Amino acid sequence: MLRGEEKNRGIFVTVGTTCFDELVAAVTTAEFADRLTELGYRWLRVQVGRGTEPTFLGETTVHRTWFRFTPDIPSEMEKAAVVISHGGAGSVTEALALQKRLIVCVNESLMGNHQEELAVELHSRRHLILAKPADISNAVSAIEHADLEPYGTYDDSLFPALVDAEMARPRPACTLS
To answer: Which stretches are annotated as coiled coil (predicted)?
Structure first.
């Protein structure tokens, strides 16, 4: 059974604002639904962005829903026991800040695979599990027993303070020659 033996455990999947049909297809298969049932999950909610409208395959007791966009992804993440995310920095850091068990699937088709560097680094520090869409069922099984390190907290006032300090620093006047 799942950690905490909670009755209403679920998984939230987010692909961000772009299209990541490969991940959406992987989490809408009958095999994935069977794995969720095996592990005691009750629901799956999938954010598909600009991707193709999904079709959930297989019969299951897992309640499965999808949507395109919401202005409040953090509240969707908050409800979930596990978050499966594309490798976008915003989505990844939001899930980690919420202290969610996180599986990241890098969308390799975007801008020269720019998501990979962050995902690999956070995986090497044991903050998340890195998986390919084809291996998502195994990743969900693995995250149940993964010894992940908490990401920690951050002070969101530090960056604005740094900018303020930098802007207040005296600079030599510019002269035109």
So the answer is: none
